[in-house]
User: Fold these one by one.
Assistant:
Number 1:
Amino acid sequence: MTQLARSKAVAPPGTDRPPVIEMRDITISFGAVTALDRVSVRLFPGEVHALMGENGAGKSTLIKALTGVYTVDDGTVLVDGERHEFHSPAASQAAGISTVYQEVNLVPNLTVAENMMLGREPRRFGAIDVRAMNRAARKTLLHLGLDVDPATVLEDHPIAVQQLVAIARAVGVQAKVLILDEPTSSLDADEVEKLFAVMRRLREEGVAIVFVSHFLDQVYEIADRMTILRNGRLVEERMVAQTPRLELVRLMIGRELETLERLDRAPRTEAEGGAPLLTAIGLGRKNSLEATDLQLFEGEVVGIAGLLGSGRTELARLLYGADHADTGELTVRSERRRLRNPRQALARKIAFSSENRKAEGIVGDLTVADNMLLALQASRGWLRPVPQATRTRLVRDYIEALDIRPADPTALMRNLSGGNQQKVLLARWLIVQPEILILDEPTRGIDIGAKAQIQAKVAELAEKGLSVVFISAELEEVLRLSDRLVVMRDRHKIDERPNDDVSVRDVLEIIAGEAREQGDRDA
Amino acid sequence: MSASTVPASSWDRVRGYAPPPRYLPVVATFALFVGLYGVGGMRYEGLSDPQVLLSLLLDNAFLIVLAVGMTFVILTGGIDLSVGSVVALSTMIAARTLELGWSPYLSIVAVLLTGTLLGLLMGVLVHYFQIQPFVATLAGLFLARGLTYLISVKSISITDPTFTSLAFKTVYFGEYYLRWTAIVALLTVVVAAFVLARTRFGRTVYAIGGNESSAVLMGLRVAATKVGVYVISGFCASLAGLLFSLYILSGNSLHAVGMELDAIAAVVIGGTLLTGGRGYVLGSLLGVLVLGMIKTIIAFDGTLSSYWMRIITGLLLLAFVVVQRFATRRQR
């Protein structure tokens, strides 16, 4: 065992402990498709191990093999050097492997303590001993450095706390291995820090943590080692500190990604645009956005940067009429009128793609073609159906233009990967030929390849004269695409500047205000 | 983020006690009941007599038991439409078997077994065949009602001495009295409240209502619990049927038509959310008492027609659902 660990150069320094988990040559196939092809992964106690790869690389299959959701076709899983076969999640949990998923898999209506202890509550005379349960829960919470009252109801806490409670539940079972599958996708920066503090604590205690995240920053901040997968195969096992970012990306996608460089576009300024296409003056809504001014010129990309809850989505919804503005005025072209609903916005050639892809974007049970044509059909009204020939042509064109895979208009939307769903949504709005396109987090949770394609498309459209409001939690992305930058914090605009030579660090400093110390974060 | 998480001393907790928001619906129902009783007591002579309250319990014993079973089902996010028919079937089975000369105890066992089995059947349909609870129990409604007609289309009266003596068995508290049926109903409430609050089964019921797929991932016994609530509801329905046959001393295919809706109304007025996960059996008991109190007031008034009962129930339901809507929206 130890010998094997040494034979590769990447055991964590300072440990000569054997791996707690060793997966050797794992192969899993679904019918003719091989999802994992002889993949080997080792997890050492006391490390944060990032599992890297694009969508479809096999990360989640690997995790499901380890958690007993999928049965392994070939290969062996060793836990502390002993062979194990997991046929159910319960078997895997019994071996000390716990998982926390992207969505908080707890029950909102019960208390924090109950959520941590459900299924293994302490009992006295056959009845649940609530006091003992709360005590045990509090102990685990304090141990993780969390100051949460175990008797409070879970749903009264913010998502981040709920996520931490899920982790507390997972480690409460004496986990040796903790798998965190995209735990940070709905957390803001402060909350991520809190999560990382808990992860560091567990790492010190010798727990092996598997960390899956699309955010490279976070991987570099917290992970010690990583295993990179591509197309169901193992690419390499690496120490994080010795792997530059660009190289990691190259390993993940298997080619150089030119789009990671700044997109080459001549920045536009209002000087050449003439009158603005859209002007918001003092636009605001009670409890959601304070009075905000915004201008948008033809062919301009305005990037909105800000943390979760800064008001970026709220602003987008007000511009589109999805929410009602209480104050301020909105001028689209020369017409001064606050929008009352999305129909009015669409009639003025404004389109909006929501950040909430699942709930406000896709219709999972309809086909790709239907999803694409929804907005066009809606804007025409139900009495004037889109002719079949037009439908076929539009769908074919956009599938090709956006490189949607599978290139099958009849595929069901829910079977597409996140990236391809997002491309279909983009197509949906492009089909109505908007002059103003508001994109809220169009690249969240999708792989780097699709992300680059979407960014390139947005840049190309702006070249052709489309005005875009681009919102993203990823500052790099906002900076890469925008001509002008609007920075938001605490529900109002705090800064606006042309995007020339603005760095991520500059934006972070603006968001953080003067108070934040330098060197807190590396751009 | 960590607001209100300061560990409070016991004294602080006692001094600053306010009912947690999740108990508010039950508190509201209780206040409504007290209000009705107070106003009724002032307006109508004799209504403030404590015996009126006790009579409320014994006149509605069967509905209380039904509402208890229904609460389990609704807490998981399901619904059980079959219970009214099962009550009718139970009265019929009891009446018919007694007519055939069965031992009354055997007859009781037969009734309880039938209801429980029907519940099991519907639970299996709902969980393993993934049929919507509404549809599965609608089928149960027709099946049970049809079986009742199959046994007899005529009304059969119950004359068995054991049954009749059970029916009139009375417990006295000084000058006030209760029937045994009411005590059985109250016991059911107590047992159900304990099961829901303090057993793994009960907590799993709430967990399923909160988020079923999470409950599965948390390794809880979701299948057994989901089938279990329909079994409990079926058992409660047949028990309610027994109480009803003791109350009315006959078996009839036309008994208890629409009673499932009364039970659902009581549960909702008692503050249980139809989407599941929130509610208490105590609320359902209060819900039944509120409905019973309205009926009593109408009876005392004498000038109001009985259809006012329906109208008021409808208005109350509406009011409670709207209030709940606002209450839950504020929490999010």
Number 2:
Amino acid sequence: MSEAVSALKGESHVGFATVTEAGVTGMITLRADLAATATRIALAGQGLKLPGAREIVAGDKGRFTGWMSPDELLVICAYEDAPAVAAGLAKSLHLEHALVTNVSDARARFTISGAKADQVLTKLCPVDFATLKAGEMRRTRAAQVAAAIWRSGPEELSLVCFRSVAGYVMGILEVSSRQGGELF
Amino acid sequence: MLTLTCPCCGVTVEETELAPGGEAHLKRFGPGSTDAEFETYMFARKNPKGVHFERWRHAYGCGKWFLAARCTVSWEVFGTYPAQTTEPPAELIAKIKEKRPGWEGWK
């Protein structure tokens, strides 16, 4: 087997906040009727919960389910588990009008941590971070590319974007988090 | 800066997260229509000074299309509503009529 490598191999920069490429992460796109009982059962079978609109909820084994749009969810799990979780979801939804795809290798995940982590993203995203609650999934843009952001811990934000733009996102995060660039 | 609330995901976003889709509530004239009808459908667009109904797509968010009513002069947003409608909701029309008494209607 070839070794799985993340987009930037865990590159990290320390400024007034620490920005890190979070390494390989299992991500699965699920498109289905989110109101259907079958969807809820399929998620429960993998230890996942169904999030409400714009929520990200924790399930078992450190897995998360994020709400991406009225018919789309993003499942986040361990990289090694992703193929099995995707297969499990696809199996239980095979009679439904649904799509399950393992997108782990098509995405990159970053963490921005520190007491002033919000300010790194305030400069890049048209989002009022003062009103971004814990457990809220916010899809937006980071400078010129699409991204999804949520609070993944105290003083820590996570950002996912397409792998093809990982270098660009690391660049803007690094510049935005440089020492002396704090907003307040 | 134009700020709209996406009715699909409920988040209030500003213009740069959205993609404009032009005038809303167009009636399509396809095969079988007259040349004049097709030309009107294809090219003629309202350009009002005042109330305008528009299509927008929440491009950087949930990716869904929705419709919005706003004033092209003051940029006041009267409301947004799902795209799965053939005409603006009655309460939105009432609200606009209250705010713009001289408004000639959406058609």
Number 3:
Amino acid sequence: MTEPVRAEATTNPGGEEKYYLRFTREQRLMHAVLFTTFLGLAATGLPIRFSQSFWARKLAAAVGGFGAILFLHKLCAVVLTIAFLLHVKEVMRRGLIHREKGVFWGPNSMVANWKDAKDLGGHMRWFVGLGPRPKFDRYAYWEKFDYWAVFWGMVVIGFSGYAMWFAPFFAHFLPGWALNAVLVIHSDEALLAVLFIFSIHFVNTHLRPDSFPMDMVIFTGVESEEEFKQKRPLEYEREIGKGTLEKKRAEAPPLWFVTFARIVGFTAIFIGLTLLVLTLTAYFS
Amino acid sequence: MNRAARRVVSLTVGRWTFAIGLLLVLLAAWPLGAQECLACHSDATMTDANGHSLFVDGQKFGSSIHGGLKCNDCHAGIKGYPHPDKMAPVACKNCHADEAEALKTSVHADGREHPCTSCHGDAHAIYPKTDPRSAVYPLNVPKTCGQCHGVNGMAGKHGLPSVYPNYMDSIHGFALSQEGLLVAANCQSCHGSHHILSHNDPQSSTYKMNVPATCGACHAKIETDFEAGAHGHAIAKGNGKAPVCTDCHTAHTIVQPTESKFRMQSTPICGNCHKDKFSTYRDTFHSQLGFLGGYVETARCWDCHRAHDVRPTSDPDSPVNPAHLIATCGQCHAGANASFVKYDPHANAHDRKRNPGLYYVRLFMNLLLVSVLTFFLLHTILWIIRSRLRQLKNRAAKGENHD
């Protein structure tokens, strides 16, 4: 599975820089749908989860009012579900019907392999100064974790959400206690997703020193040769070795689009961090 | 008068005698005082030595319930003018003995603090309670009592709360002031009039044990329901801990139970006693969405347990008896079935014995949350530090090269 969740790179203002394609338009659109609906789900779900907190009623009013909050939550859920199913269909089409190589295994796949385990260990050793920085391939281990965390999260939160939405129907297959359990599963897994995305993903991908303040590649789809070489040396070298690097050549993104993407991206990060602060205040009060 | 009569008699005879005789009878029958007293007391500026007004509005007095009485029926001791130096105070009890007797043991027994006029108004303009001009006409009662039992009222001196504004905002006050319903409960419907007792007095209509009967005077069916339920049984047995009407509805701030305000405020009231049930309820979606405020539809205690006829689950008549669960849950959840009603609306995720499945699911989810976040938090923090160090090192190296 080769669905990228995000990448790491910084936009380089260098004028003569060569640019290479990392994400297709469909993949970038998928990320846009994903973060838009995720923010919507978090903003409408958190007031319900923490309805006792001092901000719950105000936030509920701000995101559409009490009457609309559950409707908006379900609306975002349905859109996200459709996006998820389209993604699964696309992966199946590429991997099973078209027999495209490298979808389920290899350096371009999202499936974890032995190198990811070694990279994790090596990266941690590098953190504490006990070894060199590992060389990463197209998708680093934390990127794969993000992908699978979101994948698993959508299955778990989605299933438990629909089980609550259509409880009498689901009751035909689920034992009675499961109807109680789905709320715990839904809210705890969603809480994990909110805390993870709004802190770990934001920092790992956008806010850490190497990418600060925002990695634009998920919005523009392209990155400069220098970034490519530095961030993903194994993939870069392989493409050179195979002589296919030039196939990835792309135009530099237009300035207006970069500006637009920055506004959207920073808005998303701002909303996310706000929700993170609210969540933490509710959780620890 | 006698001298005048003698003069007339001396001047006339025959049929004049009859006319004069009639005049005499009329004069003798004229209420003593009403006209004579008003000769002076109709002066609106008339005051006594202390500056208190001595003015009497003859017209009002004439139309009042006491309009047929003579002034000295009440102002005993006054035979004519000049008045005696010391006058006996007006004693309403001379005629209204029953009321005076009832008042004597009431909270308003102190006649100086609560003279009859403090409720009945102007002594010379007292009307029957069925007359809209009366201070104790049903629609006027709250305002009359509110003079003392309102904001900054005299009742505050005795540590009593201001209840008048609460009442006026209540459903009873609204029905009375906005709709003019004579049957709407006013102060004296619950408290009585002359024999008002403290709610701590077992004889009082507002004593806890008597409240159901007091409210039941109007809300008869609800009283019957209440008596059939667990709370009513407990009250009948003398268990003062069980709630009565006012514990859930309050005494003066009573709102329409279907209003979101009431639906919001009353679940915690049940929780005052049913603490464990309230705490487990708060873990459910019913509560989470319900507490947001606008969602009045989600189930509150009485939507499942009934409000007045609350019965134990084991009672076959209880709506939460297993036999009725499909119907009870089905009120909101269309398609509720036997498996659906196995849902536990008071599940406790921390109680392994009661909800083992839920207990382990929660444990797993908590462990997952804590372990993932702990690992990645450490991972990210170390990463930030290392990256920053490398950046600074690189910059320093570059700087050296440039130099």
